[in-house]
Amino acid sequence: MQHGKYRFIIGFLIAPMALYVIFVIWPFIQSIYYSFTDWTGLSPDFEMVGFDNYTKMFKDDIFWKSLEHSVLLAILLPLVTLGLALFFAFMLNVGGRRRKGALISGVRGSGFYKIAYFFPQVLSIAIVAILFQFAFDPAQGMINGSLKALGFEHLPNWLGDPKLALWCIMAVLVWCTTGFFVVLFSAGMASIPKDFYEAALLDGATRFTTFFRITLPLLWDTVQSGWVYMGILALGAEGFAVVNIMSVGPGGPDYSTTVLPLYVYQAAFRDGQAGYATTIGVALLLVTLAFAAVVMKLGRRERLEY
User: Fold this and answer.
1) DSSP line for the chain
2) Angle ∠(250,252,257) on CA atoms, nearest 5
3) Residues β-bridged to residue 248
4) Does 154 score more than 90 pLDDT?
């Protein structure tokens, strides 16, 4: 009987495991293999070059700039995005005044705010990037136009200034991702029994205290998962798309906004150095794994149940 059970389980899992190995694990193995070659990506011919690509990468100033920008995005974006999302979700669910006999309620119009916060999620990231590219235009953009109407004279060249460009891109990423986490955290807060809040408030606790003593500890697993997810987005597709569309160059000015995914793309498809591009890709993989491991390690705590 036991033998038949294990045979059934193995037979049930073998197909999805085979697909996972072929379409997920094998591309990583291929990338690591190509990182030791001089493959151009345009020809089936290539030769093994050992660690030459890795030596070149460690001496490449653009790689280190890209790594610095990617790490900055992976640290700051989750911090700002999740912080804002937690604040907004708390205000929408718990932070309102007492009314209609309910001790716990969100701010007035919370349903509308949830829709408004989530609205950027229905837009493609490419559309968002294009819209903000126009908004940041120094001559005809909405932002400088508004500042000019308010009387400001020395208007910045947002995306053309190396000191401002990356911060502008970060602001766009925060704007378009905060709404998703507001809805996610709101769903988590809705599952917390209101008795906890009512008991705390009757004992004299403030909203500030209830947030740090009740809401955040009970949502910690969701926050931790969101932190990893947001960091991976910043290191991957979202960061690449916004930088590639919005920045000058793209990646400029003077490589001030180049991130690792963009540098992989440029090395492979602009410079015809697919072997070197996969080397940078391997570095990006290690950075992503290290980021997820650090967040999971630092965020580990005893699970609370209610």
Assistant:
1) -HHHHHHHHHHHHHHHHHHHIIIIIHHHHHHHHHTTB---SSSS---B-TTHHHHHHHT-HHHHHHHHHHHHHHHHHHHHHHHHHHHHHHHHHT-SPPBTTBSS---TTHHHHHHHHHGGGGS-HHHHHHHHHHHT-TTT-HHHHHHHHTT--S---GGGSTTTHHHHHHHHHHHHHHHHHHHHHHHHHHTS-HHHHHHHHHTT--HHHHIIIIIHHHTHHHHHHHHHHHHHHHHTHHHHHHHHHHSBTTTBSTTSS--HHHHHHIIIIIS--HHHHHHHHHHHHHHHHHHHHHHHHHT--PPP--
2) 95
3) 252
4) no
Residue 75 has pLDDT above 60, yes or no: yes
Contact 137, 209 (CB under 8 A): no
Cβ(251)–Cβ(262) below 8 Å: yes
> Structure tokens of 232?
């991976």
- Give whole-number Cα distances, 186 to 93, 147, 231, in Å: 7, 35, 21
User: Rounded to 5 degrees, what are φ and ψ at 37?
Assistant: -125, 170
Q: Which amino acid is at 276?
A: Y
- Cβ-Cβ contacts under 8 Å for 116 (sequence gap 6 or more): 179
What six digits make up the tokens of 279? 């080397």
pLDDT, greater one: 4 or 3:
4
Mean pLDDT along residues 270-285:
92
Higher pLDDT, 203 or 267: 267
Cis peptide bond N-terminal to 250, omega within 30: yes
Alpha-carbon separation of residue 52 from 16, 59, 103, 278 (angstroms): 37, 11, 66, 13
pLDDT score, position 302 = 65
pLDDT higher than threshold 90 for residue 248: no
